[in-house]
Amino acid sequence: MQSEFHTEKSNLGKIKTHLQSDIEKNSTKQAKLQSELADLLKSTKKEILTQANINEKISDFNHDIMESLSNEILLDDEYREWELQFENKTDKEEYLKSLISGVNKEDKLLDIGCGAGELIEYTQQQGIISKGIDISEKAIASCREKGLDVNLSDALIYLSTEKENTYDYVTLIHIIEHIPPKKLRDIFNLVYFVLKPKGRIFIETPNVQSLFTLSRYYYMDSTHLRPKHPSLIKFVLEKTGFRNVELNFSDDIPENFNFSKLDKRSGDVLNEILFSGGGNIYLQGSK
Fold first, then answer.
1. What pTM value is reported for the model?
2. Name one GO biological process term (predicted).
3. Does residue 76 belong to any structural domain of this protein?
4. Which residues constitute the domain of residue 14?
């Protein structure tokens, strides 16, 4: 394993000079995460992480490290600044309220990719037991300044350490578009494992059926990976074991692009082709 770490550092040293300082800062953290994942995979007795696929998962994780570094052109603090330029602050409280519809005060919530902790902060104000995880040091530092219960951790590693039937509600809000397919399947399996019976998963992600979203927003973020079709995500959730999986669309066609105002019949067709239900999709299912 040590030789793999040395190879990793050697590869990192070949990345272009203008990213060197950021890579050096992250290499130690990534190597530590890789080591922790290897230990967890070797010790776990969970059926979904068997000994037979340990080497493959370590290899995949190793590839994810290099892929995430090569895709990221912005530094940690720059990424948040970039995000804020496009954040829709309209009815923020109503949006957060809608996310926890049906969640009770005695429930336990986990927000994977919690970012600045807006959902965690809101749910704690409502008396809900909430925890968040993120791989961004800046985001976690910001959350801790607010006194929020958060951890700096990769989702796969963190979920591997949690006990079965721990949470009532797990959210992944604008996270899965950053995760490679194989790793995402493992995360879905582990979310299912840590959810209590009848516990729920909630996912929000860009609607890649929408040509408008795909061309205008999806590829503006260099950390977004290959688009995943909404129907495919729904199918994988069902195969993971989730029941009553629902797929809904945000239905938020921009007013100045709504072609139905020009001609109802042809406008509706154009809207369907260009927007396909809106900018985001929402998926939820229960254990």
1. 0.71
2. methylation
3. no
4. 2-71
